[in-house]
Amino acid sequence: MFEKILIANRGEIACRVMKTAQKMGIKTVAIYSDADKNALHVKMADEAVHIGPPPANQSYIVIDKVMDAIKQTGAQAVHPGYGFLSENPKFAEALEAAGIAFVGPPKGAIEAMGDKITSKKIAQEAGVSTVPGYMGLIEDAEEAVRISNEVGYPVMIKASAGGGGKGMRIAWNDEEAREGFQSSKNEAANSFGDDRIFIEKFVTQPRHIEIQVLCDAHGNGIYLNERECSIQRRNQKVVEEAPSPFLDEATRKAMGDQSVALAKAVGYTSAGTVEFIVDGDRNFYFLEMNTRLQVEHPVTELITGVDLVEQMIRVANGEPLSITQDDVKINGWAIENRLYAEDPYRNFLPSIGRLTRYRPPAEGALGDGNVRNDTGVYEGGEISMYYDPMIAKLCTWGPTRAEAIETMRHALDSFEVEGIGHNLPFVAAVMDHPKFVSGDMTTAFIAEEYPDGFDGVTLGDAALEQIAAAAAAMHRVGEIRRTRISGRMGNHERHVGESWVVTLQGQEYDVTIDADHDGSNVTIAGKTLRIESDWTPGNPLAEIMVDGAPLVMKVGKVSGGFRLRYRGADLKVHVRTPRQAELAKLMPEKLPPDTSKFLLCPMPGLIVKVDVSEGDEVQEGQALCTVEAMKMENILRAEKKGVVKKINASAGDSLAVDDVIMEFE
Question: Which of 200, 226, 288, 633 is an active site residue?
Answer without folding.
Answer: 288
